[in-house]
Fold this protein.
Amino acid sequence: MLDKDNMIKAYGDTYNDGKIQLSFTLPVQKGVEAEEAARVYCAKMGLKEVEVVDMKDLREGFTFFVVYAIADVFVNLDKINVAKIETEEMSYYEINDYIKEKIGKPLTVVGACTGSDAHTVGLDAILNMKGYAGEYGLERYPQFNTYNMGSQVPNEKLIEKAVKEKTDAILVSQVVTQKNVHIKNLTEFVEILEAEGLRDDFILVLGGPRISHELALELGFDAGFGSGTKPNQVASYIAQKVYQNINNK
Amino acid sequence: MLSQRNIERRSTLALKLDLDQKLIDLCRNYTADIADDVEDKIAKNTTTSVERTVLRLLGVDGVDEHGIPLSNVIVEKVQKEEELNRGISYWFGNALLQTKLSVQKLAQAVAKDEVGLFKLPKASNEEVYDYLLKLARAKADEIKDNVKIRKEMKKEHPPGPKPWLYVIVATGNIYEDVKQAKAAAREGADIIAVIRSTAQSLLDYVPYGPTTEGFGGTYATQANFKIMREALDEVIKEEGHYVQLVNYCSGLAMPEIAAMGAIERLDMMLNDAMYGILFRDINMKRTFVDQHFSRMINAYAGVIINTGEDNYLTTADAVKEAHTVLASQFINEELGLRTGLSKEQLGLGHAFEINPEIEDSFLMELAQAQMVRQIFPDSPLKYMPPTKYMNGDIFRGHLMDGMFNMASIMTNQSIQLLGMLTEAIHTPFLQDRALSIENAKHVFNSARNISDEIQFKPDGKIQKRANQVLEETAEILKDIADKGLMKSLSEGIFADIKRPMDGGKGSDGVIKKSPDYFNPFIDIFAEELDLDAR
């Protein structure tokens, strides 16, 4: 039997009315033809009752549209399946106690923005003493030894450091994702580890505003953290994962 | 002499926030000590990049068969022989004198080893200097002509009112950048910045030719500068309003980029005294020597520099570390003035980066913005938009950008880098930029003269906050003056970032000058800018 409540559409102001809003630019001079082009474009997406509510001349032969329409398709919630981080989120104090009691030695992490990426905002938010959004960074944790290598670190250098410090986890941050520049770099990182037979020596954590857990798994990492991640979420994951790995050995 | 208008503006400004003028003067005294110490430490040095810049200013252009810029090839040859301490000017000038080749022909011949710089007869220092000075003067005059052209264009097609709308293009492809820049300029943007490809700051050379591949931006090359300048000139004539072009005069090739900008008539350059040290881990001495020469070029070329204090707040807390921004502005001001930049060329940076969840965060933003406006009344402040707390919620982001614009018009800011609602998602789409311009125009127009109507309540929150930041600034500047700037940087005084005094990239490019070193451009610029040649 199909559970009707699990078959959903977008909600505007009535259940399953399918109302959505979208905005986009077409390379066409503003005018009635442009408006019609926008409507046809949306119709080809399968949208119904397309209303172009605003149109703006962006010059140089471009027009911006704001559109409301009905997306007349259903999603079955029963068939949704996503990869999630399964560890439990703990607080700063809980994490330190957990490591002390269950693992019995402080954990070491090395973090870097690799390749050409110069944006350390995310990495710093997780690692720096003061942390992010009211949560201390890993440097503040007595039960973590933290090495923040900063930006534009070559993959080889990061691995070298991780081996030298006998790291438990490696944190890689990637902010610049234009033209998928990060994918190549991250793939190379995992490939080097595998080639050197080091892959299982470390927990590999990936972070960045455009990173999902699913993408991280696909690239061969153990976990991925997206925008808005707090340091304690990463710390909880690393602590519990290390403990699991000890028990699995 | 101050014009009557400036005096009036200052007196109305003085009413806004009651800042302790004695404390401001004290800050400037400390900064003078700090700058003395920096100058003392760098005076005897030159760098490979400064020497390459001399070649570029003389007109050396192009690359060798491996794609390496000729300026690099030639300077490396001299460095290899450990003769760079005498300056490239002597060796290249001597070769010009002996061979009578043109600058470019000689450069090509040296690169191909058809002419050996050290095998030629050696003329005296004086002979070479006199010969090269004439050439250098002719080249410097070309830059001066650019200043004239800019002035005339601005007269004919005046720029819009301040705050100027500053937007970035960053497609990686200069031809795509041109489309976006032209569209933005026609929409009303006053300033176009072509963001550089990520990591260009760490290249110890300048890439060559027009480029169509880049990550997070487009390579700064002389050809790209020229392409964008021509495109904007076209829009200026059609739309009747002046559009300024910006690039990034930072990183290991900092002074070379200043030279390219001067030659291609750019209007603004990001050119901070400490940015490379802090955010790119470039060696301190290298940075200070490079920034000094690059700023002389910018000063001579009539370029407005933008400093990078906004960046501190992306790593450090904007409430707690507000005074480090002001302290750095004082330092950038003093180091800038000493290179011949006028106050009107100092686009001192700051940012709207306080956590918006904090109660009265907007009041603190106003306090900071008004305070720096009053402390640097003649400088075109560069105000940077919220980035740190932008999170992908474009609707909230657009509102934050609107509040940022409001703070700017309330406090008479000058250079407004427009926030993008899609910050933290992607480099701006065409529509993002248009929405940002619309946002700024809407706010600025609807509150155009609001700052004339505002006085801040004596003993109110905004007053108190501004004075607190100023007091903390005086304290930290005293501390820096005591320790020296380099030591302070090594202790992490700015942006929570520590850099060792002798570490960092590019230290191998720092060279101690010999007593017979000369650089004719330094002399020409210093004379024109009324500085003591060093």
